[in-house]
Amino acid sequence: MKKKSIFLAGLFALGLIAWEAQATNLCHTSIINVEDNLPTGYETIELWGSLMMGTGPNDINAGVNRNSVYLHFNQSFGNVNISIYNADGNLCYNGVVNTSVQQTVIIPITSNNDGQCYIVLDNANGEAEGEFTQE
Asked: What is the structure's pLDDT at 27?
């Protein structure tokens, strides 16, 4: 249980660090999704961070509905690792997508993952993360 608490605290701290860097422009950090480009029925997942320098606010669209997480990559980031954690810090999903070939990913979510969830996208050039509530 202690590892889970430390993990969640670390994710929260990373979020605060990313937000702080955004606010002071100390490094390249941005929100990288736009709500208007999600399919009907999906709520926005705000992602913080960058998978590569020069990415902007329209580069990844992320959303969630009762059954799935939706990701659309509006540019190629190469291979991107996608991890989803539940509120206990347990890994619920992990996969790799080659965004040069597959731009849209829909990840099924089960009712076992109810509550606060965390998503982490990373590649060789950076990381983006966000959180969402699954009910």
From this structure: 31
Domain count, the chain: 1
Distance CA 65, CA 39 (A): 10
Beta strands in 1-135 (DSSP E): 30-31, 43-44, 48-50, 60-64, 68-73, 79-85, 91-98, 104-108, 115-123, 126-134
Structure tokens at 115: 């509550």
Q: What tens digit of pLDDT does each residue of 11-48 get?
A: 444 443 333 333 332 233 344 444 557 888 999 999 98
What is the CATH number for 47? 2.60.40.3080
Which residues span the domain enclosing 101? 2-134
